Amino acid sequence: MPHPFEEFRAKRQAGNDKALDTENLLTKRFFSLDKQAYGDGALDSKTKELLGLVASMVLRCNDCIDYHLEGAVKAGYNKQEIDEAMGVAMLVGGSIVIPHLRHAAESLEFLFSEHSAS
């Protein structure tokens, strides 16, 4: 049975494929802009992953949280660094962020176990 994070990846990819199967230029440009925004610029892409994570937690988007957690782990952040960023998110967002912090903690446990196995 696949882990919920693996199901998230598959569902996200399938949804992106369907969303991008369009002639709508606005949709295609938005997806492209998102990809460009998280690339290196005045801030490196690694830093932007933590910014995206904090924003996603404050906005309470679990899919976005998982996306940025995966990026943060791939970028080389350790658990202590990610936990500190999530603490900032909770401070900014308040106690309503706690359920999303729980979600993030479960996802992060999976990502680090997967990362150490590879």
Automatic annotation (TrEMBL):
InterPro entries: AhpD-like, AhpD_core, CMD-like. Keywords: Oxidoreductase, Peroxidase. This is AhpD family alkylhydroperoxidase. It comes from the Bacteria. One of its GO terms (molecular function) is peroxiredoxin activity. It comes from Pleionea mediterranea. The keyword Oxidoreductase applies. Pfam families: CMD. The keyword Oxidoreductase applies. Gene3D superfamilies: AhpD-like (1.20.1290.10). Residues 27-106 form the Carboxymuconolactone decarboxylase-like domain.
